[in-house]
Design brief:
By secondary structure, this protein is of the alpha/beta class. The chain has a single domain (12-206), classed as Carbonic anhydrase (Beta-carbonic Anhydrase, Chain A, 3-Layer(aba) Sandwich). Helices cover 45% and strands 16% of the residues. It contains eight helices and five strands, in the order H-H-E-H-E-H-E-H-H-H-H-E-E. It has helices at 12-27, 38-43, 64-67, 87-98, 114-125, 133-149, 155-173, 175-182, and strands spanning 52-57, 75-80, 104-110, 187-193, 200-206. A five-stranded mixed sheet has the order 2-1-3-4-5, with helices on both faces. Helix 6 packs across helix 7 (155-173). It is globular, with a radius of gyration of 17 Å. The protein starts with 11 loop residues before the first helix and ends with a strand. The model has no long low-confidence stretch (mean pLDDT 93). Its cofactor is Zn(2+). It is an enzyme of class 4 (lyase).
């Protein structure tokens, strides 16, 4: 394991390239496990300078630091089932952008997503789940409908559409994030993770060009 200096000065594009390189190492079983030693731990005592914020699904198979081969202090991670936006997650993302000056937001979905699968089943059956799971389904249903309008009915295709919809929704809801994108301080990358081979596929972006 090795330690690297903080990389807060990265541009949005450079931040994405860094994540892409880490994911490629993970896919090829050439992981370096950077920034996971005691020296790195000590260097972060006084503060943090992550170069990306991950807004991903809570699925246990989607451990962001592992699939992108990064370490302590590299990423600010926010997770909800189906990467559903709520006030707490939105506030966390705004904090990362406005206070920590993170240059890249990654919306991280994955194939075979249970939350998206549930939303599709509810759409087909009309039987709503109990408790707050219903709230998750209600938030994902617009993505299911958007996918259907494009002729997409399978789970994995709907996951990609949900990532795209979440990317757009995030900017619609947050003026802080929208302004940061307009100013070139940050960008949003929509990513679909493949459970079978570990690839993190870019499916949408705002401000990344």
């Amino acid at each position: 394991m090795r330690s690297e200096s903080t990389t807060q000065s990265l541009s949005p594009k450079e931040a994405w390239e860094k994540l892409s390189a880490g994911n490629l190492r993970f896919v090829n079983e050439e992981t370096e496990h950077p920034n996971q030693d005691s020296a790195r731990r000590q260097s972060l005592i006084s503060g943090q300078e992550p170069f990306a914020v991950i807004f991903g699904c809570s699925d246990s198979r989607l451990a962001a630091e592992i699939i992108f081969d990064v370490g302590l202090g590299d990423m600010f991670v926010v997770r909800t089932a189906g990467h559903v936006i709520d006030p707490a997650s939105l506030g966390s993302l705004e904090f990362a952008v406005d206070e920590l000056n993170v240059p890249l937001i990654v919306i991280l979905g994955h194939n075979s997503c249970g939350a998206v699968t549930s939303a599709i089943k509810v759409k087909e059956s009309g039987d709503m789940p109990k408790g707050f799971v219903r709230d998750l389904v209600e938030h994902i249903t617009p993505s299911v409908l958007a996918a259907e309008r494009k002729g997409i009915t399978d789970v994995n295709g709907t996951v990609v559409e949900h990532v795209k919809q979440t990317t757009d929704r995030l900017v619609d809801l947050s003026t802080i994030i929208a302004h940061a994108i307009e100013e070139g301080r940050t960008a949003v990358a929509g990513v679909a993770y493949h459970l079978d081979d570990g690839r993190a596929q870019l499916v949408s972006s705002l401000g990344l060009d």
